[in-house]
Amino acid sequence: MTPHKIPHRLSVRANAFNWMLRLTAKPAIYFFDDHPVALKTFDTIYSQACTLLQLNHTPKAIRTYTEKLTHCEGEWVMAKGVSADKVIYYLHGGAYFLSSPKLHRSITWRLSSFNRRCVFALDYRTAPEHDITDCLEDAIDGYQHLLKSGFKPENIIIAGDSAGGHLSLLTMQYLRDHGLPLPAAALLISPWTDLSCESDSLHHNNLRDPYFWGKAIRKMGGFFADAGETENPLLSPVKASFAGLPPMMILVGSIEVLRDDARRAARKALAEGVSVCYEEWQDMPHIFPFFSAYIPEARRAFKHMSSFISAVDANQVAWYVREHQNLHDDHPSYQGVAIPT
After folding, report:
1. CATH number at residue 161
2. In a domain, 340, yes or no
3. Active site residue 162
4. Residue 73 catalytic?
5. Given 92, 104, 286, 324, which residue is catalytic?
6. Full-prediction pTM beyond 0.85?
7. Is residue 261 part of a domain?
């Protein structure tokens, strides 16, 4: 449960991987289009690339199986020796257009292994056939399914990356607003918290980000958010109230175009009394734990998340956040983000 130090220097392998993304994924993403035919093509290429890079590979000791819900399915991911009464409820990223729990196994099996918890990853409905209200309906259904299955709220951690981080925030805000029990904590990895795309890093990190273009993010966000809907909390949970939400851990790369989405969420949560363990990793790409097979820092991040979850289990989040801040007071990656005292 000891807080971990974020590495100051980029590893050789991480630097090489960033350049690989710059030369392959980033040029392809430049031509992103939300036309249904283009989306299907992009999704196929993305799936094949993940398979080629073995990003969805799981060790033989990891068990997986699917379970049918009302409108979608969920995938159970379980390492050896997992607790029978503790679960991580995982919502995958993919801009609400792409991906699946299967393609995010590089994250889910490690979360299960590092934390000795089963992971339930939701295969929620996606755009363009479905909108965010459908995604949120699925997310609430999946959470209530866990409650009906016997998991207590204090033994549930909600987690998500990118659009899954957005959906995690929406889910917690919905549960709070409807008087439903909240999970014990949240893990948000490179969360996309503002679909109206008002974060400055979409411009400032446009060339620095090895993976995404700000233009592509705006194109994705524009599919859901009209110009007149910038204040809609369903589209931008960072603009809604965080009061009463459980403790959060937020991880993001310092050169991501979505970096400021994470910073804004951290600041908003802190201002409204939520305990936040915020980590900004130097020069890491978007959802860098996804690339754990190639980036040493990504594998290291799972130790950080595990320590945070251990603090949640021990009811010592306040102590952990305070010690985490003291450890990183002089770390340049924070760049002015308020850390709790």
Report:
1. 3.40.50.1820
2. no
3. yes
4. no
5. 286
6. yes
7. yes
